[in-house]
Design goal:
Blueprint lengths: L8 H14 L2 H11 L7 H32 L3 H12 L13 H17 L14 H17 L7 H22 L21
Helix pairs in contact: 3-4, 6-7
């Protein structure tokens, strides 16, 4: 390919890709051998080592199986034997940890959630409500008391208002306490009995 005077990133990626595709496997192997990092191992030696490793694993599995038989023959409890076999078979078990969702499934899930939300069926009780600060509670209660006092309907009784005013006083006190600046003496506890402590 002829390189133009102006080279952009996309063209550079294409050139690198073409160059990498042109490199043969044997060239890479030869480069690593020349570094001296890798020992020169033939393909046959790799296959023999792989075969020996597989045979070793099979032998270990057979040994474990024989051990299970020995353990269960001494104390023939079918439940223990079943549990041991289940535990040992877990290595061969292919557990799917996640399912690849197709677009149609994703759309169905989203639409189902929307329908539940519209119908009020969606349970939002799992979401934790944020804590309302005292200042907001105080303002809200003040506003409610003002609203309550403005009502002319007989269902709004004056004796009920006393309860709200009681809570308003409580909130006012809590609010003042939260705004009270601590003094340095608040961080020290007085000594009840000085004889318990050694004075240097």
């Amino acid at each position: 390919r002829e390189i133009s005077k102006k080279l952009n990133i996309k063209d550079a990626i294409y050139y690198v890709s073409e160059s990498w595709d042109a490199v043969e496997d044997q060239t890479i192997v030869n480069c690593w051998r020349k570094t001296g990092i890798l020992s020169s191992i033939s393909r046959e030696e790799i296959e023999v080592a792989t075969y020996n490793h597989d045979m070793s694993l099979e032998q270990q599995e057979d040994d474990v199986g024989n051990l299970v038989i020995d353990l269960t023959s001494q104390d023939p409890d079918p439940e223990i034997e079943s549990q041991l076999n289940t535990y040992l078979d877990l290595n061969d078990l292919h557990i799917i940890t996640k399912e690849k969702l197709e677009d149609s499934k994703i759309i169905k899930i989203v639409l189902d959630e929307e329908n539940q939300r519209e119908n009020g069926d969606l349970d939002d009780s799992d979401e934790e409500q944020p804590e309302i600060p005292i200042s907001e509670g105080l303002m809200g209660l003040n506003k409610f008391i003002t609203f309550f006092e403005q009502q002319i309907d007989t269902d709004f009784k004056a004796e009920d208002l006393k309860i709200f005013r009681k809570y308003l006083a409580l909130l006012n006190r809590k609010y003042r306490e939260s705004k009270h600046q601590a003094s340095i003496s608040d961080f020290f506890t007085p000594l009840d009995n000085e004889e318990d402590y050694d004075v240097l």
